[in-house]
Structures are given as C-alpha cells and as structure tokens.
Amino acid sequence: MSTATLQQTRRPKINLAVIAPIVALVVLVLIGIAMNPNFLSFANITNVLARSAFIGIIAIGMTFVITAGGLDLSVGSMAAFVAGLMILVMNLLTENMGGGLPVILIGVALALFAGLAAGFINGILITRAGIEAFILTLGTMGIYRSLVTWLADGGTLSLGYEMRELYRPVYYGGIMGISWPIIVFAALAILGEIVMRHTAFGRHCAAIGSNEKVARYSSVAVLRVRLMTYVMLGLLVGIAVVMYVPRLGSASATTGLLWELEAIAAVIIGGTLLKGGFGRVWGTVVGVLILSLIGNLLNLTDFVSPYLNGAIQGVVIILAVVLQRNTGTAR
Amino acid sequence: MTSPVLALEGVTKSFGPIEILHGVDFALHPGEVHALIGENGAGKSTTMKILAGYLDPTGGQVTFDGKPIRFAGSDEAEDRGIIMIHQEFNLAEHLSVDQNVFLGRELRRGPFLDHKSMRARTAELLSQLECRVDPATPVNQLSVPDKQMVEIAKALSRKARVLIMDEPTAVLTGRETEVLFRQIERLRAEGVAILYTSHKLGEVKRIADRVTVLRDGTMIRSDRTTDVTEDDMAAAMVGRELSDLFPAKVGGGADAILEVGGVSVPGVVEGASLSLRKGEVLGIGGLVGSGRTELAEAIAGLRPRSGTVRLKGQELPPNQVAHAMRAGLAYLTEDRKGAGLLLDKTLRENLTLPLLETFGRPLIDRGREEAALDRAIDDFAIRAPERGMAVGDLSGGNQQKLLLAKTLLSDPEVVIIDEPTRGIDIGTKQQIYTLIAKLAAEGRSIIVISSEMPELIGLAGRVIVMHAGRIAGELAGDAVTEGNIVRLAMGMDDNKEDSAA
Questions:
Q1: Best label site of A7, A68, B166, B390, fewest CB within 10 Å?
Q2: Looking at chain A, which runs of residues are DSSP E strands?
Q3: Chain B residues with CB-CB distance to A9 below 8 A
Q4: What is the pLDDT of residue B428?
C-alpha cells in the first residue's frame, strides 16, 4: 500500500483510526494464510486484485465525491448502462464496417464519453438545480438501470464473438502476469492519492465538505469543484466499464448491481468521513481490498458459508463507521 | 453573607500534559450576580464548563450546597438546577421555538404531548423577555438576537438555582440587553445564583455584584463591583496598564479607490452608495440587521446585487468573489466560525485556502505553505500551542488573528472588516486596532463594520450609518459621536435624505 505519511492533521491519539484499516487488512491476510496455503498464491492474489479493480476504480472517484460532501448512488446502474451502450454500438459497427481495432477504439471512446456525460448530468443537476445528491442519484440510478434493461430488451447484450476475442486481452492480458485492470487500478489510485493530497482541487474538495460556506467565502469555486467531482467519477465509471466488458463480453439488467454500495462502503472503511471534509484515496484502496478479501476467504475456506459474505461485509462496514465516530469527532 | 450554593475549591484542569487552570477558587452565592472576566484563553469557558458539569476537574473539588460533588454530566447538573446558556446556540434549528424551549422536558397530557400548554407557557416566557416572536416559528427563521432570547427563555423555563451565562449580550442590541438585565435582576431577587461573563466591562460594572478576574488560568482578584473601576478590571485582565486603546488615526488621500453606486440587494439593502479613499478607514455603523453585512457581502461579490461597484475605476461583476479578490478587494466575515475558518482543519490549510493556486501548480508546495504560516504567526502574533492543531481548538482571539492573516494573504488594497473584534479580549482588540491603523498607514483602504460605538469612533475618520437597508447618513470629523451614530441608526435623523431613491 501507499505508505503516504501517517502524520495526519489530527493529534497523535487518533492514529488508531488512521491505521485501523491497514490492521484489518493485515489480519485478513494472516487469517487467509493460516486457513489455506493457496491463499498467497500468485493466481489467487491476482484474481482477487483483478476482480477488485472495477469497484476500486469507481471507489477512487467516489472518495472525491464524498469528501466534497456529496454522494452518488447511480454508479452501478451507470456502469451497466454504459456497458450496454458500448456493446450495442460495437455490434452495430461490426455489422456495418466489419470488425477490427477501430471498432474497439470507438467503443472505448464511447464508453469514456458516456461515463463523462452521465457524471456531468448528475453534477450539473446537483450543483445548478440544487437537487439533493442522494435523491438525484437515486433517480438517475433507476433511470440507467431501466435504460439498460430496455436496451437489452430484458435479456442480455452480448458482444459478437470476433470482437470478444479481439478485446479479451484488455482484461486477461497484462505485463509480467499482472493483468491490465490491476495496472490501471494501481496507476489511478496513485494518481488519485496525489490529486487528493497535493493539489488545490483535492484541498478544495475537503474544504467544501468541511464547511461549504467557509469555502465559498474563501473564494473557492464551490459549484465548479463539486461538478468536477461528479464528472471525474463518471469518467472513472467509463474506465471501469472499458476494463469490465472484455471480461464477460456482455451486459444485462443485473450488471453492476450494488456496485454503488460496495464503492461507498470501501470509501467509508478506508477512513473517509461520510459527511465529507476529510478523505484519503489510499484508505479507499485498502477498503476495496478488505471487502474483496472477505469474499475470497469465504470461498477458500469451509468454516463459514460463502452465502454469509454480505453479512460479514456488513459487520465490517458498521465497525468502520463506529470507529470513525468514536475517534474522528471526539472532543 | 449566605453560604455558596456552588463553588470551586482549588480546582485545576489539564488537557493532556498542559494545565490550563491552576488552583481556582470561585463561589456562587444565592441572590448574587458574579461576573467572571478575563482575556480569551484565560480559562473562563473551562471554569464554566466545570461548574455546569460538562467537564471534570483534574484536581481540587466542586461543592454543591457545601458538600463535595462530582457530576456525571451536564444532565445531572441540570437536574440539580444548574443551567448554562452557551455562547454558541444549542437549538434544534428545524424545530419551533416552543419545541426547543421544552426539548427533552415536554409537557404531557396522558401519553400525548400537551402542545397547547407548552405554546402558552413559551409565549408567556417570551413576553417576559419582551421578545415578539411567535412560539410556532421554526428557530432557523429567527435572527441571531432572537435566538439568544429563546436560549434565555429555555433557561428561565426551568427551576434554575444557578444560571451560568456565557457572554449573553455579545449578539444583543442595547435595548435587548436592557431587557435581559431586568430578567437577571428579577432572578437575582428570587435568590438565583448567577454567573455572568462578558467582554463589555461597562455591563459588568452595571449588573454584577462581584467580579472575579482570571488570567492565564489563575485567579487574579475578586472584588465587590463597587470597589473597582473598569480600568482596574481591564488592567487586571491584561496584566498591564492599557495605554490608549486606539492608535492615532491616519488621514486618507484624496483619490477614491472604491466607488459603490446604488447597490441594492433584494429585501435587505436599497440603493446604497459610498466612496472610499486611498489610505482611509471608513466606518459603517447601524443596528444588527440594518443591512451592513449584506452591503459588504454584495460589494465583495458574495451576494447577487444590482448597482455598480468600481475598484480603481474597474467595474467588479456581481457575485464573483474570486474576481473581487484578484482585483484587490478582500472581505473579512463577521461569522468567524460559520463562514471564516474550517474549524476541523489546521492553521496552514486555513491560511492558504483562498490562494491555494498560487502555492504551486499542479502540486501544492508544502514548504511555501509552511513559510507563509511562519510569516503569519510572526506578523499577527498568533499563539498556537501546536502548529498542527485544529483551528477550532484555538482561542477566539487567535482565530480572529488567523482569519485576518488569511484575508490579507492576497495583499488586498481594499479590506472590508466586519466586526473586527467580536467576542475577543481587550488585549487582542488593541493588537487588532493597531494592525488596522498600520494597514491604513501602508496606503491600504479599510472599511470597518462594527456594533461597538467606541470602535467606530476610535478607528474611523468617517462613519456611514445604515438604517433598515438604507444609508441613513454620513458623519465626519467631530460629528462622529455616539449620540449622532445612534440617532442615525435608529432612523431618527430626517435632515439627510437617502443618497439614492
């Protein structure tokens, strides 16, 4: 993990909250090693990381949205819609101009643009029309989910066989056995951490989440920064979709189901304040890993049924928030 | 003399390794108003919080009716009749006035709430306070002084034996203060022990029977109020004789640097025009709610407005605060905690927030930020125990100095300072006055908005007075007197017409 300075803005006492997610992650890894020798195998680790990548990429953007005092419930549906749209257009193009690399490139560009546009729509309605983020994104969540169901006519949209073969390496290929989703996730996480901690944009997000009025009086362009967080999140959803589509080559009404909640949970477990004002991207990465390790461990061991995955994740989320409340805002 | 109802005996209090109260003895007697005064950071708040059960003493003991006691929390203290009125309001903003007054102690009839009696009882309390507020109004629609009155009504509604008031008059106008004093006198006659804090020594002299001075966590002196003068109190608080509080005034140049023409903000300001000369200190007076702050915010680009604002001949567009700041105009808000500083962030993050882009792009240069903080700490004599601490843990005076440093970071030519010394102690006040005079001497132009008459008279060469959203008149030179300002502020002067229709 990024070892980005532990000396936070708070007093030394609160270090517990800072390191708690890392401790939890280490404990999970130790449990994994103890229970199954295969846990540390290269194949298992890369598998866990590759599967975390989609949620992880989205959660990086969610960290900025939440830090700035916002929320986005629509990302899961948005991902499904963008994936559906991408597959539909790529299939159409294959029919008309034959397959090949150009079709993939157009599909990728379309996914990125669609994500960006969807994020922009969320952001502009929240900042300019002044609609509560929770309500607005609850609305767009329903809209995108229903649109993808409609596009797929209630079934599944599948990428043509030829295209799928050509596109496969984006998920399954990589450098030195490390697949592209992991590489992209890692690169974006590092970039996100730098943006959050070392740029005016990251600082402005925290300032707005901490006290919007103070930010406005300090001549921070509050609306623009807020809008940017949603646009950025939309773009990251687009990137996640670009990595996701080659995995199964299809999209349906259940694609990306509950991704928004997993992304939000990862952000909170990582130590970002749900009410905004403080966020850290490396924490979010740890949060994503914790959530996917829980699922992986349950699959590798027999003690607990994998069906209880959600229950255990729920407990972890609640614990994270309790910990946050006891240490973060204690006076 | 009666025996004290609530007292501290040799109380010490430490936060971590730092002891901030050193063996304080303090007693509250029934039927006595006891004033506790001291600079910010002297330990007044801590003393009050220990008395009201919010904090436990580290050493020494609290006695109640002569017996040592340890409150489990403020609830237990309240059950015993020890009520504290906080400086920051403890009101549920979305609930109505009567719901707030009876919050947690709702009157019932059977299993249901007795809305009628609660409303009637609230109306009665408010009328005692001469506060014309409908008990059904949600608290978030009230003005700040009315909120204070609701807090007081809430305290009065209980059977109080000890009433602790933390600067209750800081946000009240003169008339409201009179009403409050009558209530305090009534409670005193009923045998309630009252602790009263204020930075306004005139008030202390008037209302208190006994006055105790705290300095740096130590009790300096405790006297009958009749035995000490205001100067004695001020000297004891600061630990030195206060020379003249206000520095000499600097005359401004002849050229207008800021010209405001017919500025209106719907509902609050109407057709205000003024001009500010280079190197001048211009005062704006008027009652709370007369539109002073709204006018300043409109000029600074923080509110939509009509009319023109010209800085050095360049027109400033409305509602664009960043543009105004880049052009050289900065505004220091009266609402330090709500709009001025991020209380949960460090000094550094607060200081550089308005100008973050100039500290390196795309990556912020931490070293330059730290250097800027070093300079601010030196220039403004900010006393922070720790560099990395949250700004909310600083004393009010140091917060204000940091806010000044933040506002002046952009090196503005025109500075509008709204309530430069609200809720800060007399020593820091003097520092801030000196600073304002120094800024003017450097050729900057300053507008000072203040509710404190001596401040306007002492600082400004020229004073504009607002009344009900309009500029009621302008005073200059020897005409700047308390009487003239009050007359204009109350809308009693008909000689001068509004500058614009």
A1: A7
A2: 156-158, 174-175, 178-179, 250-252
A3: 345-346, 349, 388, 390
A4: 85
CA distance A26 to A224: 39
Q: Which 138-197 residues of chain A touch chain B by CB within 8 A?
A: 194
Chain B: give the shortest CA distance to residue A202, in Å. 10
pLDDT of residue A11: 44
- Are A290 and A309 a contacting pair, CB within 8 Å? no
Residue in A199, A213, A219 closest to B339 by CB: A213
First-to-last C-alpha distance (Å) of chain A: 30
Written as one string, the DSSP assignment of B404-437 is: HHHHHTT--SEEEEESTTTT--HHHHHHHHHHHH
The beta-carbon neighbor of B356 closest among A11, A203, A210 is: A203
Dump pLDDT digits (tens) for B283-324.
Answer: 999 877 788 999 999 999 999 999 999 999 999 999 899 999
Name the helix (H) or strand (E) containing A138: helix A133-151
d(CA B149, CA B175): 12
Q: Which residue among A9, A10, A219 sits closest to B325, beta carbon to beta carbon?
A: A219
Chain B residues whose CB is inside 8 A of the A190 CB are none
Separation in Å, CA of A301 to nearest CA in chain B = 44
List, in order of start, the domains of chain B with CATH numbers. Answer: 6-238 (3.40.50.300), 243-328+414-501 (3.40.50.300), 336-409 (no CATH)
User: B357 to chain A: which residues are within 8 Å by CB?
Assistant: 200
Residues of chain A with pLDDT under 70: 1-17, 324-331
Cis peptide before A102 (omega within 30 of 0): no
Tokens 């687009």, located at residue: A238
For B313-373, give the DSSP string. TEEPPTT-HHHHHHHTEEEE-S-IIIII--TTSBHHHHHHGGGGGGG-SSB--HHHHHHHH
Residues of A in contact with B298 (CB under 8 A): none
The Cα A317–Cα A320 span in angstroms is: 5
Chain B CB contacts of A7 below 8 Å: 388
Cα B133 off chain centre by: 23
> What ipTM was reported for this prediction?
0.83
Helix segments in A68-100, DSSP class H: 75-97
A204 interfacial to chain B (CB closer than 8 Å) = yes
Any residues with CB less than 8 A from the CB of B148 and at least 6 apart, and which? B89, B168, B171, B172, B176
Q: Which of B297, B329, B345 to mutate to test the interface with A (most CBs of A within 10 A)?
A: B345
User: What's the topology of domain A12-328?
Assistant: ABC transporter involved in vitamin B12 uptake, BtuC (1.10.3470)
- Give me the pLDDT at residue A196, please: 94
**Is B354 in contact with A215 (Cβ distance < 8 A)?**
no
A65 touches chain B (CB under 8 A): no
Provide, as residue numbers in chain A, all residues whose Cβ is less than 8 Å from the Cβ of B361: 200
Tell me the three state secondary structure of residue B310. Answer: strand
- Return d(Cα B31, Cα A5) in angstroms, integer: 57
Residue labelled with tokens 């430069």: B420
Please report, as a single letter, which amino acid is at residue A306: P
CB A156 within 8 A of CB A148: no
User: B471 - beta bridge partners?
Assistant: B466
Instruction: Return the pLDDT at A13.
Output: 46
- Could you tell me which chain A residue has the CA closest to the CA of B387? A9
Given an 8 Å threshold on Cβ–Cβ distance, is B344 in contact with A199? no
- What are the residue ranges spanned by the domains of chain A? 12-328
Phi and psi based region of residue B3 (left: phi greater than 0; alpha: psi -120 to 50; beta: remaining): beta
**Regions in chain B scoring below 70 on pLDDT:** 1, 16-17, 40-41, 240-244, 492-501
Chains A and B form CB pairs within 8 A to the count of 72
CB B265 within 8 A of CB B294: yes
